[in-house]
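Dear colleague,

Thank you for sharing your sequence with our group. We've completed the structure prediction you requested, and as agreed, I am returning the results in plain text so they can be pasted directly into your records. Please verify that the sequence below matches your submission; if there's any discrepancy, let me know and we will rerun it promptly.
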Amino acid sequence: MTRRDRLLRHYAEQREATDRRVAEGIEKNRKGDVALRFVDGSGKPVQGARVKATLKKHAFLFGGNLYGLDQLERPEKNVVYREKFKEVFNMATLPIYWNTLEPEQGKPRYAKDSPFIYRRPPIDLCLEYCEENDIRPKAHCLNYFYYDHYPAWCPRDTDTTEIRRLCEKRFAELAERYRDRIPDWEVINETLGSYIEWDIIGEKQGSRVY
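Please find the predicted C-alpha cells below.
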C-alpha cells in the first residue's frame, strides 16, 4: 500500500456514501434559483440577447493553510504554489503559533524578512499575498498546547500568573498590529483536551494529557 493509499483509505472505503453526501450538499447549500431580466437604456426588455456569465467570487469560504508560502526548495516551485493556491482557495490560515512566531522573547517574526522557519512563513508575507489576491486570512491560533506550542523561554508550570501575563501581552500585541487586516481569529484549539499522537497511517503512538 502506498503512502497515498494509506492517507485516502477511509475515503476509499466510504467512497459511495461520501460522494452521495457531497452531491446532496451541493444541491442543498450551493445552488439556488434566480430570474434575470435584461433591459436596454430605456428600460425596455432586450429581445434575443446572448448572455455569458462568469462567477468571479462567492460567499462560500474554501480555505487551506498557507504554510508553504515561499517555503519550497526551488524558486519555480514557489511560483507554482502561489499560482495554484489562489486558483483553489479564497481563504487562508496563517500560522501564529507562539513558539515559532516569537522563538526569541521580544523579537516576534512578523516582518517579511524574518528568519526562516520551515512551514512558518512570516505573517506580513502571508498577509501581503492574501491582500494581493483577495484571499480572506484567518489566524491560527492564539492559544494552543502548552508544552508543544509555547516558546522555550516561557515559564513551565511554576508561575501561572506570569504565564497569564505573557499570554495577555501576546494577544494584545497581535490585536494591535493586525486588527484591521485579519478578520478571523482562532482563539483556542484543543487546549483543555487530550493530545494523542498518530503516525501517518493512523495508528496510535502514545498520548499526553495537559
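Summary note from our side: The radius of gyration is 23 Å.

Kind regards,
the structure core
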